[in-house]
Specification:
The structure is a homodimer. By secondary structure, chain A is of the alpha/beta class. Chain A folds into three domains: about 90 residues, Periplasmic binding protein-like II (D-Maltodextrin-Binding Protein, domain 2, 3-Layer(aba) Sandwich); about 80 residues, D-Maltodextrin-Binding Protein, domain 2, CATH 3.40.190.10; about 80 residues, 2-Layer Sandwich (Alpha-Beta Plaits), CATH 3.30.70.260. Chain A is built from nine helices and 16 strands. In chain A, strands 1, 2, 3, 4, 5, 11 and 16 form a seven-stranded mixed sheet that branches. In chain A, strands 8-7-9-6-10 form a five-stranded mixed sheet. In chain A, strands 13-14-12-15 form a four-stranded antiparallel sheet. In chain A, a hairpin with a 7-residue loop joins β13 and β14. In chain A, α8 runs antiparallel to α9. The longest helix of chain A is centred in the last third of the chain and has 13 residues. Chains A and B meet through β4, α4, α8 and β13 of A and β4, α4, α8 and β13 of B.
Amino acid sequence: MPPNTPPRVAFQGEPGAFSHSAARKLLGESIKLHPRPTFKEVFEALDKAEAEYAVIPMENTLHGSVHENYDNLLDYNFVIAGETSIRISHQLIALPGVSLRQIRRALSHPVALNQCKKFFERHRRIQPAPYYDTAGSVKALAENQFRDTAAIASRIAAETYGGVILKENIEDIRENFTRFFLLTKQKRLLRPAQGEPKTSIVFSTVNRSGALFRALACFSLRDLNLTKIESRPLRGKPWEYFFYVDFLGSAEDEIVRNALTNLKECTEFLKLLGSYYPTP
Amino acid sequence: MPPNTPPRVAFQGEPGAFSHSAARKLLGESIKLHPRPTFKEVFEALDKAEAEYAVIPMENTLHGSVHENYDNLLDYNFVIAGETSIRISHQLIALPGVSLRQIRRALSHPVALNQCKKFFERHRRIQPAPYYDTAGSVKALAENQFRDTAAIASRIAAETYGGVILKENIEDIRENFTRFFLLTKQKRLLRPAQGEPKTSIVFSTVNRSGALFRALACFSLRDLNLTKIESRPLRGKPWEYFFYVDFLGSAEDEIVRNALTNLKECTEFLKLLGSYYPTP
């Protein structure tokens, strides 16, 4: 890649999606967007080298882990090059020159509409109108030149489609964060490593009770701090589970290498997803 | 409650929602539905005795745990009286007398539309049209007497609104299950207890690494089998977590009582959510 070529980033959704915010936070302002309709197509874009990076949501504080993307991480051999969290904050967006009192309906994804119930209670003349996605609803305003319609989406969606924010942060719940991974095909160092590295792994055990306890002993005996643990039943295989575990430390540290070697002895399957530096 | 009065059941969504299917599976055909727009209102309905039961989704195999409902379980002191899983299967539904070739668009929640991508690829003349929820889209057909429009929803939604299923099971992914809890205000035995009971708890620890290991020792030392473990970071409190744990056994068993007493010693906070018999 020539030095001044902006990196190509694949993500799910339209430009202006929350994944676009995450991509900018991870890689800076100068990026070339490769939006894709589904997560599968995002992974395919990285696999076919249509992009150097992919940004994918892994979990949300209200809605839990995105199991589909854990499955994709198992299906492809990519490297986690970074991690960040984005607060999911909703803006009421309209075309320039349109004022709040002209608005009669607000387009957005039903999940976002549901997260702004109090706004609709306070503004009874504005009807919520379901749409495919949040950023796409701002795009629809611009394409149709709607002047009686607003959209509910991110700040970056307003910026992307030339919308104006009529009301800021209209979400009911402020404690709504989504955690994203930055994926690459080959290991690449993003920027000077800062802070403490984290490592993500997936493993499975057959006999649950004793096996999980032994698996966790590999960490606690070495004073390694877990930051996430989650079981996921393997359908059709009673008593078999995947475990998603994140812990502090890098797979390049000797102590972590030892823990993983030890863990291999007490699991059926173990995959190192990557070691990375979180972007605060 | 007089003996032949059907039990009143609160759930989120419209009649015909997947929660309605779960309620019927748990309580039988003869139930009085108390649909509510939000989960919070479902919990309120049970609290105010507007219903004897509430049926709430706790986790989905694709989308993870519904943290909002774990929070609600912490906020209210209800009892888990039962548990079941429902396969999320989508039907193409139209008004009676309408044939597939008349259909030009299909209404549903965007999440359901996204789960039927292959159907739309095979039927290019049918446009997906986002709507608030799946069951509500069938209701909209009936209310508007649409003859060029279908809806994508559950079997029970077709039945509820007198729709006809034009195409069965049009979802792309068959391995999509949602797990529901049946909640009551006071402990009540549903029906003759069958199979092996399960117990659900929530606890928190401060120092993660050693504390979780010690907490799990309370189970593994007694050969109690975990069926779920999940950490959830407490926002604004770094290194503090909630853990959701399910295990086999009833809180009425002595061994489980001992495990919970032991667990109390090594946790900051512990709440027993309930012991219940799963409905297969």
